[in-house]
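Exercise 3.2. Students should predict the tertiary structure of the chain below and write it as structure tokens, then compare their answer with the key that follows.

Predict this chain's 3D structure.
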Amino acid sequence: MELTIAIVLGIVWSQIISHWGASILLHRHYCHNQFKVPVWFETIGLAMLMIACIRTPIGWIASHRMHHKFSDGPKDPHAVKHVGFWKVLLTTWDIDNIQTKYARDLYKNPRLVFCHKHWLKILIGVNVVSYLISPYFWLAFCAVPFVFAKIGFGLLNTVGHKTLNGANVPWLNLFIAGEGYHRNHHENMKRIRLHKWDIGGWIAEILFKYYGTKTIVKR
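Answer key:
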């Protein structure tokens, strides 16, 4: 029973991380600057991302910007055709060199820089403390979100790119908070809500439509 409860709670927690940390903060805010967010929202979202083990957020953001620049081509960091299906699916691909222009603005953010420098120590510390509290707590708080993040990113970059420049695959939203409408995203990177069932985009519109100066792009 304890195992079942831990897994169920882990799935719920993973959905919160997916929507708040990965979709709204990491992707829509950092990568594409679609809207501004308050510092408290950013700080909590970054903490979630450290738990999900995306490694350095600066590296993730820069590689995603490269992905849009060279989508599905030889310079796309995770193009299945050039990197290999299993490396992309399992998120084991790496980048030898990231040009400064894809990350220059990110180093102006002290919170991002802190996570960039200390992500591994944070990850190890959180996992150790969580396990010491309880193996079931660790399973729900750390392990399940890690698996969800790996599955989500891997599926998005494989199934979500089964056609050139992205594909709309609604069932992917079970893992990636509305990002399954991936072709819509590639067609307009500034569009926040990608589809009427894009829950991450809907939440972002509700929360940040009147925060800052960015214009919301209507669906």
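Discussion points: The two ends are 43 Å apart (CA to CA). The chain has one domain: 2-208.
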